[in-house]
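Q: What residues go here?
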């Protein structure tokens, strides 16, 4: 299993590197392995072959994995939608990055609870660039202003950028358009100093 995981990881990293170089040699890309369907032994094996960042889409699973694998110097990311009744558990977990900040209401609630505990949290604003009703995230036309509003009104949240899940369709051009839309928002925020 270890050699298979090493081979798969090497192939994924090679593909990411090829894509990164076509855009810019100065971009830094971090691969986050999603642990959703894997066991802790697989995560340990991936760690042994070089993977350091892992993500979970449920707070309870994130907490369990972080506790059970605390001897490994891993970065943990929260990837899934966050229900308001799970906010305190997420804060207790102290993930490296919360990747699915999907509303101003959630930002304000999270900021308030973080302030009560004297903590800060790194986050990405999730954009629903595919405009699909089944996906979480802010609308593309609201994303820029909302990002700036969160930066100004939520000092406990440190926004590190944006994220998006591509359209769930067969047509590659449609998928690409959804990511291009997110990239344009990112570039516009960067230009404005975000």
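A:
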């Amino acid at each position: 299993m270890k050699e298979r995981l090493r081979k798969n990881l090497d192939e994924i990293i090679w593909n990411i590197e090829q894509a990164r170089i076509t855009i810019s040699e100065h971009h830094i890309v971090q691969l986050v392995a999603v642990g959703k369907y894997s066991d802790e032994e697989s995560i340990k094996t991936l760690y042994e072959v070089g993977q350091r960042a892992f993500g979970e889409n449920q707070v309870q699973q994130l907490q369990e994995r972080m506790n059970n694998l605390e001897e490994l110097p891993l970065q943990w990311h929260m990837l899934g939608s966050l229900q308001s009744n799970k906010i305190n558990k997420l804060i207790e977990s102290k993930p490296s990055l919360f990747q699915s900040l999907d509303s101003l209401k959630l930002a304000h609630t999270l900021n308030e609870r973080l302030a009560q505990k004297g903590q800060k949290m790194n986050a990405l604003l999730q954009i629903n660039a595919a405009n699909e009703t089944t996906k979480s995230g802010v609308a593309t036309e609201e994303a820029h202003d909302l990002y700036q509003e969160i930066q100004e009104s939520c000092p406990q949240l440190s926004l590190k950028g944006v994220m998006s899940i591509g359209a769930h369709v067969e047509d590659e051009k449609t998928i690409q358009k959804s990511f291009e839309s997110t990239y344009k928002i990112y570039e516009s925020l960067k230009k404005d100093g975000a």
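A: Context that may help when evaluating the design: The longest helix spans residues 2-23. The two ends are 42 Å apart (CA to CA).
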